[in-house]
């Protein structure tokens, strides 16, 4: 009896955890798809490590409703992102956009690859030179 | 010797870059608002004390104002209430409240109990105006210039220290962009 009650309680909790996003679905599956993508790439400003889609905080629910309304109003994904950035700043985007302030961040992988390649190339070239410069012949080597 | 100098230099450089990054990382509970330096967002809300009156962006024009976003459900708001009453006593900058996602009756009984520092309060029951203001953690306080520009924003409870160090000098024009 006790075990059954516990099972019920656990199952009830599970149900609550799944139903975070109670925003009504959009009429058009394509819009719903975009809604899904957007609410997963926008940050919940209160919990910060969670996406809007996964957060049970009241503000996240309000922002989900707003995303839904903007989609229904025919705004593009970029317009909706801009709408959020204008209010909450770039921080709301989980995927940072390329702006001048963070350009070095985007360039860093390419620069590091170039430096690594240069170093590797120099090492290889030096070794090849060493091998070329070595004119001793196997026949000349002393017997072991 | 020379072989190790370059990798060591690289390592030290990396260390410096990472340390600077750690030290300068923005405090995530106090993120800069994109509204700073811009006109306040357009809004119109019914006034809590008289719902035939409106609280709007126009209310904020022509004088400095402190816009305080709060709610009776917000613990920190209770903590800052005493400071808001002191600011009201000073009578230098009127406080305009935005009551965020709250019940009007709750707000009125809170003010009857703790005292009222606000000149007007816009009731943002569904939280739409707060979103336009980029609010994410009440209490939040905005300093608005007579021209209607957002000059400064503080997230979290208002304290005498914050008020005197960040807000008042901006009002008297001794720091930052005045009106």
Detailed description of the structure:
The complex is a heterodimer of chains A (144) and B (179). By secondary structure, chain A is an all-alpha fold. Chain A has 5 helices and no strands. Chain B has 179 residues and is of the alpha/beta class. Chain B has helices at 2-24, 75-90, 104-114, 128-132, 160-171; strands spanning 44-47, 50-56, 65-70, 95-100, 120-124, 140-144, 150-155. Classes of the chains: A mainly alpha (144), B alpha/beta (179). The interface between A and B is medium-sized, with 14 and 16 residues.
Outline of this structure?
The complex is a heterodimer of chains A (144) and B (179). Chain A is mainly alpha-helical.
Distance between the termini of chain A: 86 Å
Number of domains of chain A: 2
Basic shape of chain B: elongated
Q: How many beta strands in the DSSP annotation of chain A?
A: 0
Largest interface: A-B, 14 and 16 residues
- Going by CATH, the homologous superfamily of chain B would be Glutaredoxin
Order of helices and strands of chain A: HHHHH
Q: Tell me which oligomeric state these chains represent.
A: heterodimer
**At CATH's second level, what is the architecture of the largest domain in chain A?**
Orthogonal Bundle
Return the CATH class of the largest domain in chain A.
Answer: Mainly Alpha
Largest sheet of chain A, in brief, is:
none
| Strands in their spatial order, largest beta sheet of chain B | 5-4-3-6-7
Mean pLDDT of chain B: 91
Number of spatially distinct domains of chain B = 1
CATH architecture of chain B: 3-Layer(aba) Sandwich
Question: What ranges of chain B have pLDDT less than 50 throughout 5 or more consecutive residues?
Answer: none
Q: Averaged pLDDT of chain A, please?
A: 85
In terms of DSSP E residues, the strand content of chain B is: 15-25%
Roughly how many Å apart are the termini of chain B? 61 Å
Order of helices and strands of chain B: HEEEHEHEHEEH
User: Structural class per helix/strand content of chain A?
Assistant: mainly alpha
């Amino acid at each position: 009896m006790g075990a059954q009650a516990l099972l019920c309680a656990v199952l009830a909790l599970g149900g609550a955890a799944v139903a975070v996003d109670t925003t009504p679905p959009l009429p058009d599956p394509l819009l719903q798809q975009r809604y899904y993508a957007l609410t997963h790439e926008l940050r919940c400003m209160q919990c910060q490590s969670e996406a809007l889609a996964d957060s049970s905080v009241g503000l996240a629910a309000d922002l989900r409703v707003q995303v839904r309304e903007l989609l229904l109003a025919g705004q593009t994904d970029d317009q909706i992102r801009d709408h959020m950035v204008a209010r909450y700043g770039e921080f709301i985007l989980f995927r940072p956009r390329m702006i001048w302030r963070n350009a070095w961040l985007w360039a860093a992988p390419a620069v590091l690859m170039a430096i690594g390649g240069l170093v590797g190339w120099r090492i290889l070239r030096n070794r090849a030179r060493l091998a070329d410069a070595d004119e001793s012949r196997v026949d000349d080597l002393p017997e072991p | 010797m020379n072989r190790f100098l370059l990798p060591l230099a690289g390592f030290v450089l990396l260390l410096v870059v990472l340390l600077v990054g750690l030290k300068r990382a923005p405090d995530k509970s106090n993120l800069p608002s994109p509204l700073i330096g811009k006109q306040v967002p357009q809004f119109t809300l019914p006034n809590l004390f008289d719902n035939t009156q409106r609280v709007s962006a126009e209310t904020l024009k022509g004088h400095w104002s402190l816009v305080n976003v709060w709610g009776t459900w917000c613990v920190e708001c209770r903590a800052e209430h005493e400071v808001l009453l002191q600011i009201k006593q000073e009578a230098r900058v009127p406080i305009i409240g935005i009551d965020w996602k709250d019940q009007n009756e709750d707000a009125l009984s809170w003010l009857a109990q703790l005292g009222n520092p606000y000149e007007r309060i816009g009731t943002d029951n569904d939280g739409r105006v707060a979103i336009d203001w980029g609010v994410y953690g009440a209490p939040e306080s905005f300093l608005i210039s007579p021209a209607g520009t957002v000059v400064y924003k503080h997230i979290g409870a208002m304290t005498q220290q914050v008020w005197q160090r960040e807000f008042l000098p901006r009002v008297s024009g001794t720091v930052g962009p005045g009106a």
